[in-house]
Description:
- The complex is a heterodimer of chains A (450) and B (121).
- By secondary structure, chain A is an alpha+beta fold.
- Chain A contains seven helices and 26 strands.
- In chain A, strands 9, 10, 12, 13 and 14 form a five-stranded antiparallel β-sheet that branches. A five-stranded mixed β-sheet of chain A has the order 19-26-25-21-22, with no helix packed on it.
- Mean pLDDT of chain A is 87; it is low at 1-40 and 58-81.
- Helices cover 47% and strands 0% of the residues of chain B.
- Chain B is globular, with a radius of gyration of 16 Å.
- The termini of chain B are far apart.
Amino acid sequence: MNTERSIEELYAEDAERADAEIFGRKTGVNRRGFLGGAGLAAMGAAVGGAIPFAANMPGGLIPSALAQGAPAATPAQPAAPKGPTLLNYPGKNDKLVVLGERPLVAETPEHLLDDETTPTEKFYIRNNGQIPDAAKEPDTWKIAIDGEVNKPVEITLGELKSKFKAQTRRMVLECGGNGRAFFNPPARGNQWTNGGAGCAEWTGIQLADLLKMAGPKASAIYTAHYAADLHLSGDASRPTLSRGVRMPKAMDPESMIVWAMNGEPLSNIHGGPVRLLIRGWAGSASQKWLTKITLRDKEHDGPGMTEFSYRVAIKPMVPGAKGDPKNFRILESMPVRSIITNPANGAKLPAGTKEIKLRGASWAGDLTVKQVDVSVDFGATWSGAKLDKAKNRFDWQRWTTTLKLPSDGYYEIWTRATDSKNTMQPHQAGFWNPQGYGGNAMHRIAVLIG
Amino acid sequence: MTKSLRAASLVLAAILFWPATTPAQSPQFVPSDEKPEDYPPGPGRDDTFYSCTACHGFKLVAQQGMNRRQWAESMQLMVDKHGMTPLTDADRQVVLDYLGATYPPRAPAEGRGWQNPFLQR
Lengths: 450, 121
């Protein structure tokens, strides 16, 4: 065994050989790894407990515990304090993990998504530009509809509330880059795990109602969204982000303009006083601080629409390769995802614990979740969870199940969801793309019994 | 040493963030002060830090891991899409050398990927 190279380097070069070199593990034709006695003991020692289902660890995967323990590769250790930076923001939970401060971006660890409805304080934060000042008189906020319309509209939020029928829906909002941190090699952008998502009660009107008021021409095929937040550079002539959607999605009854979240006026940090809520698609389509929607006669080309932004490869590409923009299409519906929300990753349970109650959430972009499975043996065997019904279309689906454990020791609990078109989450983030969209690897937690 | 780069960055930062000309951020949140010394030492660190933080926090950079070619593409993206003033070729090499050496591709577990709390370090 070459002791001068890190586990990561060995696995990156030749995963199966690394298995053999490091742990004496041989991968069989069924792709399961089989540990020799010495290798098993070494793995157990590294995670601080016996690994009851070690024989089922997929060959060529870096055992998670060991990957954590591997010494850093060539780069020097940052001088900054290790461990996540936690959020300190008025009205927000101080356990959210900060990915960046300028712009401010923070995600919700999976175990904080354990509420039926995600409280506003626990909801993730994504900004692309500066955070604007809070509107002093929300009802005078103006929204314009122009472009391919017969009669351009300018309407205040106050008028919007009085003119149209309001509706409240519990719907998932999810960052397009959710799951990006699981790509290997790493992809460009904020390194979200699964916490760029939440499910809140949104109150507003159907976007279609306002668009119809402006009379879309037959030539209107795409929307372009604009907002009040300033570009990070402070250049007011440069939109921070301006995305859009195909007209049929904009006209969907669940595509909304919302002014309330969980029964309260929409807070500034979440795009208040008024934002779009284009459920099931990348969160960036749900423009915060909405000021204008322009209907266009072609696909929108604002910041966030072109090249590799919010796009995935049409013809699958080699991970880490240079992409060809011609081979990319817009990521529309987000992929299927299931997370375990209780217990938390790292839970310790008393010796002799024979079963464990799990809770979780699952969602699938424009689709519904058909099935959620869990495994305590690295995916060798799976059992189904009890899947709750959605409260309304595009709600998430909570799930529960009880797992039996054969002995004390170290376990990883995995979950995977299957959507209504029978697409299931993969073991690893696949279909690599330069900016890391569609990363929906199965979620796992580590628990230690005894 | 690339004094021209630093000078240009500072001038740019001064123009962009001079309080009198920059509309106020939300008073609710002020990003914490960052300094080059918060990040791993190496040739070009300070130049890299000031080039990037003229617009955004360095944590956005430091959480990523890419090869030199991908970092070059990121910088081009900043120029093409986000109004970054292009660096001179010499300055650009300095910045890319630092980024490529300090933030190379890392296995997900070493970055922000799944973390195992039972790990014995």
